[in-house]
Amino acid sequence: MQDKFSEVAAQVVSYAIERGVSHQTSNKKPFQENKIALGDKNLTNFSICDYLALSNDNRLKEAAIESLRNNGVYTAISRTYLKLNIYQEAEEIVSRIFNKPTLLLPRTTLAHISVFPILIAPTDAVILDHQVHTSVRMASDHVKVKGTYCESLPHNDLTQLEERIIELGRKYDKIWYLVDGVYSMFGDTCPMKELEWLMNKYEQLHVYVDDAHGMSWAGEHGRGYALSQIEYHPRLFLTTSLGKGFGAGGGAIVCPDEATRDRIKMLGAPLMFTSPVEPATLGSIIQSAKIHLSDELGVRQQLLEDNMAYFYAQATAKGLPVVNSEHTPIALMAAVYPDLVIDIANIMFAKGFHLTGGVFPAVPLHNSGLRVVLNLYQSHEDIDQLLDAFVEAYLIELKKRKMTMDEVQSQIKVPA
What we know:
Elements: H1 2-18, E1 35-38, E2 41-45, H2 58-71, H3 85-98, E3 102-105, H4 108-119, E4 125-129, H5 134-144, E5 149-153, H6 158-168, E6 175-180, H7 192-201, E7 205-210, H8 226-229, E8 236-241, E9 251-254, H9 258-267, H10 269-273, H11 279-292, H12 296-317, E10 330-336, H13 338-350, E11 353-354, E12 356-358, E13 368-373, H14 380-400, H15 405-410
Parallel strand pairs: 2-11, 4-5, 4-6, 6-7, 7-8
Antiparallel strand pairs: 1-2, 3-9, 8-9, 10-13, 12-13
């Protein structure tokens, strides 16, 4: 079974490499905000998840340089024994964004691995949404090997979730439901208000949210999509990325209280045994947090909202098969089959646009699409040109396969 899975995945990736739309390396030209330099081409950026265009902001770059000068390139000691003053400063200012105690790690994946063994016991049960990010699924294996029961449920199926809460609640102490705030392939969102209702109804239910793709562009002070929908519930636990919309790098564990933070800080394996966040990244985190706590963030959020509204309205008007109706910075254009996705992407590259595919194994094999990432590097003119190129590319490739846009549209769905 696993060999077949790997074989199919390798075939999809190999075809993408062959067609020149995967495993690419940019050339040595400096990053030009809305352009990606590949070979002799400058492709318009519809692929990088720098939603608010902060990673190339001169203030973040200067803060990173200054921290590097003051603290060196790398601090080779476990933070169990010592952490730089700038590390404490970064955690304190990020905590202000959430109004909750926060811990920082080099990656969001390490945040999950730090948290799960501390929070989730062998007497608990874990339910994973089918589309939850792979990093969360990997972290769940750390508790599964210690005896914690784990299972998956169809995507955003709260009817089945409630049934499983009742059933598993007879045998286990806590039920942990693992979700994304914004799902990275299909761009759809977690039904946070409905989950809040379930948490209020069932005391055993705890919800763990990875809001990496919801951070910065949504919520007060950019605290993310999940917390733009509900308050921090006593049985909610949140992790997020300080890359992507935040523009700096690293991951954040947002704890419900200081006691939980202190326990994770003392016992979380990656906090004890892996490298700390690099000084340059800490400098940029602090600068980005200052922007998040200022009025400027709201301006950037509104500009992105304008881009999102424009994109979705124009895509719909042109009859293009956008999977998600919600306005998030990730839009998936349905193309059903991996080879169709890759061939359309190849045409889009030739027309001067850089985007990525949502294909197996990231999504079910026959539920593939082209992933359009919206950010502040793009203008409405860029979006118009992208969508016109999409229309042409779809028509070329669908004609080869004797398919129609209606047939593609009929297969649009966010998968269970």
